[in-house]
Every structure is written in C-alpha cells, then in structure tokens.
TrEMBL record:
The keyword Signal applies. This is Glycosyl hydrolase. It comes from Aquirufa avitistagni. It comes from the Bacteria. Pfam families: Glyco_hydro_106 (PF17132). One of its GO terms (molecular function) is hydrolase activity. The keyword Methyltransferase does not apply. Residues 1-19 form the signal peptide. Keywords: Hydrolase, Signal.
Length: 882
C-alpha cells in the first residue's frame, strides 16, 4: 500500500510538471526576419524585443546579423565570438520562455561566406584568353591556366603546356590557342556583420561547404530548441561560373571533354544549335553541382546537427524545383509592389517595376510545387520586401500580398523584416535598409496583432492539409539553358525583373497563367522530380509522398533529354494522360549524345506524335479535371485536401465580384464559411445546381470547408444600405496638445489643415447621427470609404475594434445602435510626415554602416522633399445588412 501511495504521488507530480511545460512555438503565427545591426544586442534589449514580438502575436524570429549603427561600435559583438554566443544562448532561453521559435542564417548578410572562406574555397569564375602563334614560335601557358585548347587550321590538337613546331600539321601556318583561366570573383559577403566579413563561398564545391560549416559546429552543439532551422538566403553569387571539378564532372555527365570546345565558351554569342547545346550541357553541369555539392549536403548536414533546413533557391543558375525540393522548408519571396485591382488599394508610385519586376504567383508556385511533390509540410516566403517606401506602408497594402502568397501555396510567412532596436534609442530607432518594418517602432505596430491573428487563422488551415492539384505541368529548364548563351553566361532564375525572360514571356508562362486564370489547380514538375512519379492502376501519377495527379501537360517543349523522352514514351504506352501543348519536342537537349542515343530520342518522339494539342480544353474535360469557375468571377483560390473533403482559401483580389451565386468544383452539400479576419462562421446550403450565395467584397478572403451538420444557415435577402449623415459638425481632436482641434462639415483628411502636416499619431473624428426604426435592424456592418491608415471604431461608448484592411468595414454587434448615436473614429496615420519633418530639420537618424539607408529606388534616403501624406478619413460612411 505504501509503495502504491508513493507511485500515485509521483504520477501526480509528473502530471503537474507536464502541465507546466511551455507549449511549443507556433508555425501558424507569422514569423519575421530579425536583423541584428552590429550584433549589438543586450540581454535587456533582447527581452524587450522578444516580449514585444510575443505580445503582438508572432510565432518566431529569424536572426540575421548585419552591419551596425555608427556610434555604437563599443557594443558590437564580433560574430561567433564568445560574447555573441552568450547572447545567442540568452535568446534561446528567452524565446523558450515566450514560446517563440528561432531560426538563424548560417552566416551573416548574404550569400554564405566570411573570414573562414579560404581563397581555394571562394567563389570562382573563368576567363578565356585567345593567343595566335606561328610555327616555330614557342609560348607558355599562363600559370593561372587550368586548361588550354589548341586549334590548328580549325582542328583541335590537344591540351598542351607548350606548343612545339612538330605539333603543326604539314602546311599549317599557325594556331589559335584558347587558354582557360580560373579567377576569383572576389565577392564579399553583402551586409556582413562585424567579424563576419570575408569572401563568398564556392557554392559548386562540397569541400568548400565542408570547410565553411565547421565554424558553426561549436555553437550548434551547444544550441537547443527553440532553435529550429538554419537558413541559406537568396543566391546572389554574382559572376560565379566555375569550380575546379567542373571539367571532370562535365565529362562524366555529358560524355565529352568541354576543354575541346573552349572556342565556343570564348564566343560572345553562340552561333548555332550545336554551340547552344554545348552551353546547355555546361549550364546543366553547373546546376547539378549546385544541387549535389551544396544544397543537398547543406540539408543533410543540418539534419545531422539536429535542426531543419530552410533555403531560398531563387537567383541561382539551377533548376529551382530541384533545389527547393532538396531542403526541409523551401522558401520563396514576394518582392515589390503589385497593382491589385482592388478599389482603394495603393501602390507606391516610386516603385520601379521595370527595374525590379512585378511579383507573380507563378514564381511562388515553384517552391510550393516542390514541397507538394515531396511531401514537405511547410512552404515559407520572404514577404513584403520593398512593398513601399519606408514610413509609408500600411497594413491595408500588406494583406492582399499575404493573400497572394497564400494563393501561391505558401503556408509559413516570414515578414521582411523586424530590426532589433535598443529600447533607449529614439524613434525611428535602428532600421534595416529595405522596407517593410515590422518592429515595435513601426507606425502600424498597435494594429499589427490584428494582421497576425488573421495570418494565424489562415495558416492553421493551410498547414493542416495538403494542396489538392489535379494537373502537373512540366517546367522546361532545358529551354532556358539553350537561350541567349555567350561568354561567361549563366542563367540565374531570380524572382524579380528577369523572371520576365524565363517565366512570363515563355510558353510555360503563358500556359501556366492560362490554367490559373481558367480555374485549374496546377503543380510544376522538373525532369528530376518526374523520376519519383509512379503510375497507378487508375492511370494517374502518384508521388512517394502520396499526392496524386490526373494529367501531365508539357508546354511547347523545344529541347528535351533522352531520359525524359523515354519516360514520357513509356507512360504514353501505358495509357497515362501525357499531352504536349502547341507542338512536340523539337530537338535532343545535349551535344554529347551518340547517334544511337539520337535514334532512340526520335523513336520515343514518334511514340507520342498523337499526344499534342493546340488547346487543352477538351482533354481537361475528358479526364474530368476539376475546374473552379470562381476564377471566371475574378476570385483567387487554393484548394486543399482534407478528410472531410476539399477545403478552400479564397480571396477577392480583383474588382469583378462583390456578391452573388458561386460554385465550387469539390464543394459539399453544406459549407462552413469562416471569415479569418473576424472569426465569424456561417453555414450555407448548396443548391441543386451546386451554387450558393457568397458575399465577398474586393479585398476580402474566406476559408470554406464542408460540414455534415447544419447550424445557423445563412439566409440571403436584399442588400440594404443606410447612409450615415452627421448631425452638425464633425470634430477632429488630437492627443498632441500642440495641435488644435479641427471642425468640418463632413469627413475629410486632417492634412487639409497645414498645422497637421508634420504629425504622426492619432486623430479622433466624432459626431452624432440618427437611424430610424426601419434602418436599425438592417445596420449590421459599418462601411468606411478612405482610411489613412487604420481606425478604431467606438459607437455609443462601445469599442468595436480596429479597421485596418480593405474593404474598410466592421461588424456592429446587436444592441449597440440606437435611434440617436454618437460615433468616435480614432485614426492612426503612417509616419511619413514625421520622417519628412526630421529630414527637413536635418536630424541625423541615418547613421548606419555599409549601405546606410536608401529609398525604394536604392538612392540615398531623403524625405525632406516628400509631399504631405494624406492622413485621417475621407468619404462617406454607411451601414449595411451584409
């Protein structure tokens, strides 16, 4: 009995201890890049920052040390020094207490590099020197040479260190020698932190990475949860196009010696299909090296160390699908402004879309497709980078970007970014050179928990279920590698302006956009990822992760490998739905194929000649590919698979729909509509024609799933609108006593009065209004016209909450409104007018090293000449019943 009592006591104690164990950090809440200027962090500052982030609803932070602030040099912590490591350990301790996750870059700034990178391990490029020599004249290959190809009367002789008279064929008058030389790019780490300056690493060399990573082993062996992931930032290794193993790997992969064709590599422009094929073989070899010598070892080593790998593959010369698929969390990027067709949506007029491009959902899908094909649960995104100029971005501009990222398959958002700023540093504090700012100094910080709650609500569903795509579309990387080749050329696939060349202005870009606009959910697949597909008895394609696809479409392919051609031919013979859009493959992809291999390529092609179509509409219908007709109405969507059937995230990012009947391809008989902004749920019954009524104003979004039990069925009637007419004057008051109160006949921006032109803060619009007996029961939602930039609504003393995003509206609880009412609308503006004042007064707040501080066009930041930014409210108010 005594033993039993002791046992019971220990069980109860264990349960009590377990109950007190801190909950794990959240991945459904948004995370943010946490820039560390100079790594000049203190324990007080770390706690201050982390507590603020946790309170605001963040799930975690990603540490990236960068250059520091001038005047604080004595507080800089050299990267990976004992002091730096102590601060990092303190971060993990505090983050665990606050239930925050922590990721860190495997280095500082970007790309990977630093003082541990030796010259032999640094990024390299090549140059080819052309020498003309005559018979009998001796010469010596420069000591920097890695190879020398000698041509006599256009005939290759051999690789020589020196050329003798006897090497010339009879009658030859001379020779052209192409000398291949290795050089360092000498690229230094961009935005490096103190103590981490140095050369960028050779990303085509496994031994270079093995040398590089050793500097992190002591830190990581001492680290623990909540440290989760180690990260590689976007590939920006400029000019790197060579590694010492290139020639050997090239010959192994392609069956011939590239050194024989240095004359082709030396040309400023390829002049024939054969020369383009040689270049494509070169590009393919570089891509293979990047995957097998860096990305895969990067992910493998991180796993061995007990952590998770995150990687931004874009910007590299590899096949992005393969690179994203090689890591635990593939990460894409939403950079710049996009002109959403939402009434009232603002785009920064200073954003240069020609120089930087316009973000495209198709680019995002490269990362999410790789994850879907390989069963990765999380797809992350660097989000809102340079959405607008500093001090100008509002949350109303952020939400449509977030929705677009979700539509692209992302379910793990990272804000770019949140700079560490000491609590004692006066506003605007320490800032990163690129917007958008999500730290406590941000003008929208008080409203940010609302956005974070919205993201959390959406990502809980998006992370819970896999994407439900019916169609695979082949991504023709070989066509990119055959395009516009010439001396020193690589094909980096960044997601900015140059994506026009490799994505938008291509057949793949056309057909992927066509499928998207027509309402078909598509994932993209590479040559390598296709190898993992298995045919099913139903004549579908199944991945190792369990995803199933009904069809493979290949958009207008020009150059295709023998291996891929024979795989497609095999599938066609098995009766699988493989179809070519516009035309059949035109040519083999490699210069190194033998005649026998070329014959096999053409035999495979003949097997598939009946499988090309000019328009896929009929075959999509024949194979019952699910088409979402809501796309015709301008509604964007992503469909997920759940045990209860399909689940949808939809967003109205256009001005083509507001309300009306809609249909879902995989909807249930009864649907739950969940507004992730407000948390309000309703249930609708689907009609016999599979339609149901949807109210989704431009800018709104919704989560939809099937339900089995009916409750609170939505009843749809006529829309009733009740305009709000102020009784008497509208007063505008400010907490800043230096500003006088204003009076207006209607709602207008307070910046119409010059006394407010330097003001950043709150202003309260107040007035009385009346509603009659007919209007009262229909007044359920308050609508505002123009809000600059978010507003807290109080009616009759009741705080209804914050309106921060388009459409500017908020629900009014029953019982709040009466026949006679008083409304207070407290608006907070962005801080543009305040920073304009600081720059006019020449206050020295821009005191950072390296790039210091720039505007959205990468020019030195100066707000002194900015126009006054409109602030407050403008336009009409009204109530509606829905």
């Amino acid at each position: 009995m005594i033993k039993f009592r002791y046992l019971l006591f220990f069980i109860l104690v264990a349960k009590a201890v377990g109950a007190q164990t801190p909950a794990a950090f959240s991945t459904s809440k948004p995370w943010a890049y946490w820039w560390w200027p100079g790594s000049a962090v203190t324990e007080v500052g770390i706690t201050h920052n982390l507590e603020a982030f946790a309170k605001a609803g963040f799930g975690g932070l990603h540490i990236i040390p960068i250059y520091g602030a001038k005047g604080y040099e004595s507080t800089f912590q050299p990267y990976l020094s004992e002091g730096w490591n102590q601060k990092f350990a303190f971060v993990l301790k505090e983050a665990k207490r606050l239930h925050l996750g922590i990721d860190m870059t495997l280095g500082t700034g970007w790309p990977l590099g630093g003082p541990q990178v030796r010259k032999q391990d640094a990024a390299k490029s090549y140059k080819i020197e052309t020498i003309s020599i005559a018979p009998g004249k001796s010469w010596t290959v420069p000591k920097e040479a890695k190879a020398a190809s000698v041509y006599v009367n256009k005939v290759f002789v051999e690789d020589l260190v020196s050329l003798k008279k006897s090497s010339f064929p009879a009658g030859a008058e001379g020779a052209i020698v192409y000398v291949f030389m290795e050089t360092l790019t000498n690229q230094q780490v961009k935005r490096a932190a103190p103590g981490a300056e140095g050369l960028v690493m050779d990303h085509f060399s496994k031994s270079a990475f093995a040398q590089y990573r050793e500097a992190f082993v002591p830190l990581l062996k001492k680290s623990h949860a909540p440290l989760r992931a180690l990260y590689n930032d976007s590939y920006e290794v400029y000019g790197a196009n060579y590694t010492p193993d290139l020639f050997a790997e090239f010959q192994r992969m392609n069956g011939y010696d590239l050194r024989v064709y240095l004359d082709v590599m030396a040309k400023s422009k390829a002049e024939s299909d054969a020369e383009n094929a040689i270049w494509a073989d070169y590009h393919r070899t570089l891509a293979h090296l990047l995957l097998t010598e860096f990305t895969q070892p990067f992910a493998s080593w991180i796993k061995q160390m007990g952590f998770v790998s995150r990687d931004q593959a874009h910007g590299s010369p590899g096949n992005l699908l393969d690179l994203y698929a090689a890591v635990d969390i593939p990460e894409t990027e939403f950079f710049g402004s996009k002109p959403f067709d939402i009434p009232g949506y603002r785009v920064d007029p200073d954003y240069d879309s020609v120089r930087f491009g316009i973000p495209d959902v198709r680019n995002l899908k490269l990362a999410s497709s790789a994850a879907n094909l390989t069963g990765k649960k999380l797809v992350s995104s660097e989000t809102t980078t340079w959405l607008g100029n500093h001090f100008k971005v509002s949350l109303a501009q952020v939400k449509p970007v977030v929705d677009q990222v979700f539509i692209g398959g992302v379910n793990h958002i990272f804000y770019h970014g949140a700079t560490y700023s000491p609590p004692e540093v006066a506003w605007p504090g320490w800032l990163f050179y690129a917007s958008t700012n999500f730290n406590p100094q941000s003008h929208f910080w008080e409203a940010l928990p609302e956005l974070n709650r919205y993201v959390d609500n959406c990502q809980k569903m998006l992370q819970a279920h896999p994407t439900d795509a019916d169609v695979l579309m082949f991504f023709p990387m070989e066509d990119i590698w055959h395009e516009r080749n010439g001396k020193g050329k690589t094909h980096p696939l960044d997601l900015h302006a140059n994506s026009r060349d490799w994505m938008k202005n291509t057949s793949f870009g056309h057909w992927s956009e066509h499928m998207q606009n027509k309402g078909y959910q598509v994932d993209y697949v590479s040559d390598l990822l296709m190898k993992g597909l298995q045919p099913t008895p139903k004549r579908t394609f199944r991945t190792a992760a369990g995803a199933e696809y009904k069809m493979l479409l290949i958009p207008a392919p020009h150059f295709v490998s023998l291996e891929t051609m024979e795989l497609w031919a095999k599938w066609v013979k098995q009766g699988l739905p493989v179809y070519f859009l516009e035309h059949m493959p035109l040519q083999p992809n490699s210069f190194g194929l033998t005649d026998e291999q070329k014959d096999r390529w053409h035999i495979a092609r003949e097997t598939m000649v009946m499988r090309w179509v000019s328009d896929p509409t009929n075959i999509l219908e024949r194979y019952r590919i699910s088409r979402e007709s809501i796309a015709d109405q301008g509604i964007s969507f992503i469909r997920k698979r759940s045990p209860q059937g399909a689940a949808y995230f939809i967003s109205n990012l256009s001005n083509r729909f507001s309300e009306g009947p809609v249909r879902l391809a995989k909807g249930a008989a009864d649907l739950e509509l969940y507004d992730p902004m407000t948390g309000v749920k309703s249930v609708v019954h689907v009609n016999k024609d599979k339609s149901f009524f949807l109210n989704l104003a431009p800018g709104q979004s919704m989560l939809i799933r099937g339900v089995t039990t009916m409750s609170k069925v939505q009843v749809v009637g006529d829309k009733v609108i009740s305009p709000i007419e102020p009784l008497g004057k509208v007063s505008i008051s400010f907490p800043d006593k230096q500003l006088k109160s204003l009076v207006s006949d209607d709602l207008n921006y307070w910046t119409r009065d010059s006394s407010t032109h330097d003001y950043w803060g709150k202003g309260t619009y107040a007035f009385d209004f009346e509603l009659n007996a007919e209007q009262l029961p229909q007044a359920k939602i308050l609508h505002l016209d123009q809000v600059r930039d978010w507003v807290r609504v109080k009616i009759n003393g009741v705080d209804l909450g914050i309106v921060w995003s388009l459409p500017y509206q908020i629900q009014v609880p029953a019982g709040v409104l009466k026949t006679s009412n008083h409304i207070e609308l407290t608006v907070t503006n962005v801080s543009a007018n305040r920073i304009r004042k600081l720059d006019r007064d020449r206050v020295n707040w821009k005191n950072f090293y390296e790039i210091n501080f720039v505007d959205i066009q990468y020019k030195p930041f100066d707000a002194s000449s900015w126009d006054v930014t409109e602030s407050g409210l403008q336009g009409n108010l009204y109530f509606s019943n829905r």
